[in-house]
Design a protein that fits this description.
Length: 492
């Protein structure tokens, strides 16, 4: 029998088929290499914690599918081992190739290894969270269709009760693929909504902060304008008349020239301090050079000397070491406490012996202005305690403590404990109310007006129930079905 001689057309067709086969094989090889390179680059870019978690998940998946086979030998052990390894390979795909991971769960539903069914809902749930709902439902439908086709094909190859197998695999597809896909889509739709709510919340918080800052700056500017128009004009008149009084006293009453000069210089100092305050009110983030120079030993000594010229007997006890370097806000508060205490002495106890103490303590810097009982015949000026309340609020914002009140034997004491390095002033704070009565004003303390909102990462029971309640109810039939299948496999 002679072999037919191949014609040129047949030879060309064979060569074309061979070329197409080689091209297809080369394309598959290139695709595999590209996928492997992409997977390796993704592993290198991923955090170490994620890599460790994924490796542990793969190992646990393989152990779940292989260890029970040592105790309960299946009918087709080779196919059961391959199915366990296949499930372990599907597990990392749920992050990078979620659609392929859902499609790959179809063959697991018809395999002989019933233990790998426990990982099918986890793969579907984790993968569908990362897919848009239309694509997730298409992938789940294709996986169920693959399950049905493989069941029918297997019944044709191996005759048996194919109706029962088809019904059982269809129930497995619904409970292990469809319901987890529903739970995954619910959680997947919730994730962008939560991200959007967080972004809107951050935007609203920022807008509220900017609005509050703008309102504060506007109010400060208005107050600065009113102070400039009212107090500035009055202090200018006082300074002009004090200058004229000094010139007249120098000619007609030389003993009073010193008091007139003190009145003029005090008015000029008040004008400079008013300009500094107006600058601070108009520019919230700026600190004048005078504030930087306040609170030093030379500055407190100048305050004491000025009070002595006004007729107050003042002694200064400065025991803060030169190595101590308090913050500018602390030094400014030292200046304010001493100035307020000496001003109160001039107004309410003029001529009473006064002691100014500034020393380093264990909790910071202690400042105290103490005066004895005023002399008889003196008529103190009435006051409204607004200066002490303002001091208490200022020191409370720094995190210190403040006391002010009368002494047992007469006299008055103003004391404060200031931190050397305050952590920082809060953006908003509710000042502590001033205590009523003639006693002390109380210790200042930072009191929050409202409880701050919890972080979005903190889990509470309402958040847990609202986040996964619907998904948990959807997955409950799946968990019950898995328990039933594994129990039947053990009993069999």
């Amino acid at each position: 029998m002679t072999r037919p001689t191949p014609t040129p057309a047949r030879a060309a067709s064979a060569r074309a088929a061979w070329a197409r086969a080689r091209s297809g094989t080369a394309h598959v090889v290139r695709s595999v290499r590209r996928e492997a390179a992409g997977a390796w680059s993704a592993v290198r870019r991923a955090p170490r914690r994620t890599v460790v978690a994924e490796t542990l998940t793969v190992v646990l998946t393989g152990a779940l599918g292989l260890v029970p086979l040592l105790l309960l030998r299946p009918d087709r052990p080779v196919l059961a081992v391959l199915e366990a390894l296949y499930a372990a390979c599907l597990m990392p795909l749920r992050r990078h190739r979620p659609v392929q991971a859902v499609l790959g769960t179809g063959p697991l539903l018809v395999g002989p290894n019933v233990w790998v069914l426990a990982v099918v809902p986890l793969i579907v749930l984790s993968a569908t969270r990362r897919i848009a709902p239309p694509r997730a439902w298409r992938a789940a439908g294709i996986a169920c269709a693959v399950c049905v086709v493989l069941t029918v094909t297997g019944s044709l190859i191996v005759p048996g009760a194919w109706v029962e197998h088809l019904a059982g695999n269809a129930a497995s597809a619904v409970l292990l693929v469809v319901l987890p896909a529903l739970a995954g889509t619910l959680l997947g739709r919730r994730r962008p909504l939560v991200s959007l709510l967080r972004e809107r919340n951050a935007y609203l918080e920022q807008a509220r902060s900017l609005t509050a800052a703008a309102a504060r700056l506007e109010e400060r500017t208005r107050i600065a304008g009113e102070m400039h128009d009212l107090l500035g004009h009055r202090l200018s008149l006082i300074s002009v008349h004090a200058g004229a009084l000094e010139m007249a006293a120098a000619r007609q009453a030389p003993p009073l020239a010193g008091q007139a000069e003190l009145l003029r210089t005090t008015a000029g100092t008040a004008m400079e301090e008013l300009r500094d305050i107006l600058g601070l009110l108009r520019r919230e983030d700026a600190a004048s050079q005078s504030d930087r120079d306040r609170g030093t030993r030379e500055d407190i000594s100048a305050l004491v000397a000025e009070s002595r010229r006004a007729g107050v007997t003042v002694e200064l006890d400065w025991s803060v070491p030169d190595t101590a370097d308090p913050s500018p806000r602390t030094r400014q508060s030292i200046h304010r406490v001493v100035r307020e205490g000496l001003t109160n002495v001039l107004k309410h106890a003029s001529g009473a012996p006064t002691y100014v103490e500034v020393r380093s303590g264990t909790g910071g810097i202690e400042v105290a202005v103490t005066n004895e009982a005023p002399r008889e015949g003196r008529h103190p000026q009435p006051g409204n305690r607004s200066g002490l309340v303002g001091l208490e609020e200022r020191i409370a914002l720094l995190g210190g403590s403040f006391t002010a009140g009368p002494l047992w034997g007469g006299g008055f004491r103003v004391a404060a404990l200031l931190p050397s390095r305050p952590n920082g002033m809060p953006q908003t704070a509710v000042p502590p109310p001033a205590t009523s009565g003639p006693g002390t004003t109380g210790r200042g303390a930072l009191r929050a007006g409202t409880r701050p909102p919890l972080s979005s990462e903190v889990l509470t029971w309402p958040r847990v129930l609202g986040a996964g309640c619907a998904a948990a109810f959807v997955v409950l039939p799946t968990a019950a079905f898995l328990i039933f299948l594994l129990t039947m496999a053990v009993l069999r």
